[in-house]
């Protein structure tokens, strides 16, 4: 049986890989929306997608058929955090944690260690 730490790394890596794959497939549309039909900011548009995922879970519950919805929701929450940080950086020159905008605060998750970035 895997330890909790190993499970966290596995799930986090799975969500990371999904986000990176979708970001390539959709051309960074979550954080740089084309606004062809929707005119909201990245934060607004992602929040709408989160609402849709939560409504699906509310209506169908959490089961084998909605497991992908949970993973999508986790991904959208990560994207929402990034969009909020980007918005604050643009408005204030600092990100959410107060780091100067030219300093990375991105966590790094590897198979051997969950937290290797000193900012985390």
How is the topology of this model organized?
Elements: H1 4-26, H2 42-60, H3 67-92
Helix pairs in contact: 1-3, 2-3
Structure in words:
The protein is mainly α. The protein has one domain (4-92). Helix content is 57%, strand content 0%. It contains three helices and no strands. It has helices spanning 4-26, 42-60, 67-92.
What's the quick description here?
With 120 residues, this protein is an all-alpha fold. 57% of the residues lie in helices and 0% in strands.
How many domains comprise the coordinates?
Answer: 1
Cα distance spanning the termini: 27 Å
- Rg for CA atoms: 16 Å
| Number of separate helices | 3
Give the fraction of residues assigned to helices. 55-70%
Structural class: mainly alpha
Shape: globular
Number of strands: 0
Core attributes:
single chain, disordered C terminus, mainly alpha, 120 residues, 3 helices
